Amino acid sequence: MPRRPNFRRDYGSILLGGVDEDPHRQRVRIQSLLTSTIVIAQVIGIGIAIVLATVGIPDPSFLRRDLAWVNFVALPIYIVVGLAVGAFIGTVATVRSLKWAIEDREPTRQDVRRTVRARRFLTGLQGLLWAGCALLLGIWYGIIDPDLILKVVLIVLMSGVVVIAIVNIFIDVLLRPVYAKIMEAGFRVRGSSVRSRALSAWIVGTGVPLAGIFIVTLLSAVGDRVTRTGLFVSVTVLVFVAGAIGLLAMLLFAWEVTGPIRNVQAGMARVRAGDVSKDADLVVYDASELGELQYGFNTMVAGLREQERTRDIFGRHVGRDVAAAALRQDPELGGAELTVAVIFVDVIGSTRLATERTPTEVVDVLNRFFQVIVEVVEANGGLVNKFEGDAVLAIFGAPLQIGDPAGAALLASRQVAGRLAAEVPELQAGIGVSYGNVVAGNVGAIQRFEYTVIGDPVNESARLSEVAKEAPDLPFASARTIVAANVDERERWERRTSVTLRGRSERTEIYTPHDR
Length: 516
Prior knowledge:
The protein has about 525 residues and is of the alpha+beta class.
């Protein structure tokens, strides 16, 4: 079997920890990441606004003495207060809505609604803070110079859009552990779709910078404040901002999307390695179409697991080789003539065993008896075809042909005799071995049939097992079986006697091993 790949059950990012992480540590992790996300997004937005205000859209200028109180007093105060309010209220409100997940309990429908509202509230809070900033700064700067109002509003709104888009991308990732618990509980939750995430990345990396370039060009075309040099500087700055922010946006988008895809990819590698156990199931944590992909993978693995279980049960009932042959092609009634070796093992004194022991004890002893035979027969390439009450029929050479069925059957019979004496001393059995032509195939009706072999070797092995009950520590084999076996195995057997088996007219030469 191929080596299993490493498989870590997580949420697609090392930042979110593992699935089995302690709930307290997970709460601290989510809370810290949430606060950091809000602060970092706000700082990026403030940085973009400053760059646009000073060099991106230089005219009309903010760098004037009469605007000093706004630039160095009112604006910094609002920035600090806005950062504090956004981070504190956003974190507290979101964590409160996710209390059920932090307490590690099953979510209710109300909990799911609160979780969805928390995500919308966090996005709305960032939008409200930036809209408030646009309003206040528009008023403050407009009182001094009305020409600044349009510039202020445009810069603040463009920066705010970037902040909201970044927060949206991050919040979908940070809520993966919560989404996983919701979907594990059987609820459906819908986060941002892949299309909306791509749109957010485009807005951040392309839409806002293009809007800035358009505004600068428009101001240059309709007014005389923007010089040719100023226009060049503005466009250069906006292109630089577009490149930097666009790269960041695409990295964030790729990080968000490739996590679930890699998760499915790792799961597929594990399935290809032959593992379809419950451990191969993915944690469904994405609330978009990618979550449907994860769920679909789990459904596929569940089907494979059920198929494997059916195959295993089928193989246990009819034998693995028979099951494999039946699954390779549609089974049909009838069979083919083959040359096989047959072992028949029959318990001695089964009636006395049933009267002296309880049914449970009888079943336990028989199961140990059968276990020995199955292990030995399969180890030598044979098939245990039937359990007939307290007897066993084993075949060598069908349905899978082997090079030396007679030699394999003789070796197996010697091993069975030795192991039964050592491991199941409370039972004795007669062991008969025969060899010859049989018809091997499916017998019965089209609605219900079984694989079996029919022919003289089957009858002969059963009759030999009856005679072998006189020496239960030795298997009895017919002469034709000895002749057909390989030289090494043949030399381990010697002629014992010649008897007329029940139902036959001619005598049968019987051999027993002299060296087990």
